[in-house]
Write a structure and sequence with these properties.
- The chain has about 250 residues and is mainly α.
- It has a domain of about 100 residues: Leucine-rich Repeat Variant (Alpha Horseshoe).
- Helix content is about 65%, strand content about 0%.
- The chain contains 14 helices and no strands.
- The longest helix has 18 residues.
- The termini are far apart.
- The model has no long low-confidence stretch (mean pLDDT about 95).
C-alpha cells in the first residue's frame, strides 16, 4: 500500500496497478455476458476488489478527508474498467458519515457524464450513497424526482435504486412508490427492472399495499417491471396479478 501522505493521483495509480497485477483475461471475457452494453473488466473477483478498497481506506482514513475520497472517484470513475469504478465507490462509501448535501450534485454529474455507465456500477454505489443523502437531507427529494425525467439512463436508474434501502421506512414509502410509477412509461429494460426491484423491496414492508398498488396501476405497468415486483408473492398470486393487470382487464 502507498504511504499515507500520497496524493489521490498516486493512490489511483497504485489501485490500477494492483488490479492489473491480479487481472484474469478469461474472467474478464465472462463478465460481458451479464451486460447488454459493452463493458471492460480486469476480471478481478469482487472479494479482491473489496479488500483493495478496504486497504486504501485503512491507509488513508487518518490523513484524508472526504474531499480526497471524492477526488479518487474523479480519477477512477472515468476509467472504463468496472473494478476501477468499484474501488473508488467503495472507498467513498466508507466515509458516509461525512456525506454532505453538495455530494448529491456531484453524484448526478458523475452519472450524467457516463462515468458510472453500467448497471453494476450504479447499483454498487447509488443505493447506499443516495440513500444516505436522502435520509439525511429529505429536502433533496424534489430534486431526485426530477432525475426521473432526464435523458441519461444511468441518472434515471439511479433515481430508482436510491430508494432501495429507504423503501421499508414509513417516511419514504410514498416517495418510493411514486418514483417507481414515474418510470412506467419507460421502454428502457434497465429502468423497468429497477422499478420492479424497488416495488419488490417496498412490498417487504406491506405485501397488501404492494398488491393494491399493482392492481390500481394495472396495464400501465411494464410487464418486465411487474414480474420483478411480484417475485415474493406465492405462485398462484403471481399468476393472478399477471392476469388482472393485463391490458383489457
Amino acid at each position: 500500500m502507498p504511504e499515507k501522505s500520497m496524493t489521490t493521483d498516486a493512490v489511483a495509480s497504485h489501485a490500477l496497478q494492483r488490479l492489473k497485477n491480479i487481472a484474469d483475461a478469461e474472467k474478464a471475457r465472462q463478465v460481458q455476458k451479464y451486460f447488454k452494453e459493452t463493458v471492460r473488466s480486469f476480471g478481478v473477483p469482487s472479494p479482491a476488489v473489496r479488500a483493495l478498497a478496504r486497504e486504501i481506506h485503512e491507509s488513508t482514513k487518518k490523513d484524508w478527508t472526504i474531499a480526497e475520497a471524492i477526488e479518487l472517484c474523479d480519477r477512477l470513475f472515468p476509467r472504463p474498467e468496472l473494478e476501477a469504478k468499484s474501488v473508488a465507490a467503495l472507498v467513498l462509501l466508507r466515509r458516509q458519515k461525512e456525506f454532505a448535501r453538495p455530494l448529491f450534485r456531484t453524484i448526478h454529474d458523475w452519472l450524467a457524464n457516463d462515468y458510472l455507465n453500467n448497471w453494476a456500477s450504479v447499483d454498487i454505489f447509488c443505493p447506499q450513497a443516495l440513500g444516505v443523502l436522502l435520509a439525511r437531507y429529505p429536502e433533496l427529494l424534489p430534486r431526485i424526482e426530477k432525475w426521473a425525467g432526464e435523458p441519461n439512463r444511468w441518472v434515471r436508474r439511479a433515481s430508482i435504486v436510491a430508494f432501495l434501502k429507504l423503501a421499508r421506512k414509513e417516511e419514504f414509502i410514498v416517495a418510493a412508490y411514486a418514483m417507481a410509477a414515474r418510470h412506467f412509461a419507460s421502454r428502457d429494460d434497465l429502468v423497468q427492472k429497477a422499478s420492479g426491484w424497488l416495488l419488490r423491496e417496498a412490498g417487504k414492508r406491506d405485501m397488501e399495499r404492494l398488491e393494491a398498488f399493482l392492481l390500481a396501476h394495472g396495464a400501465a405497468i411494464p410487464r418486465t417491471t411487474l414480474r420483478y415486483a411480484i417475485e415474493r408473492f406465492p405462485e398462484d398470486k403471481r399468476h393472478e396479478l399477471l392476469r388482472r393487470t393485463r391490458a383489457g382487464n
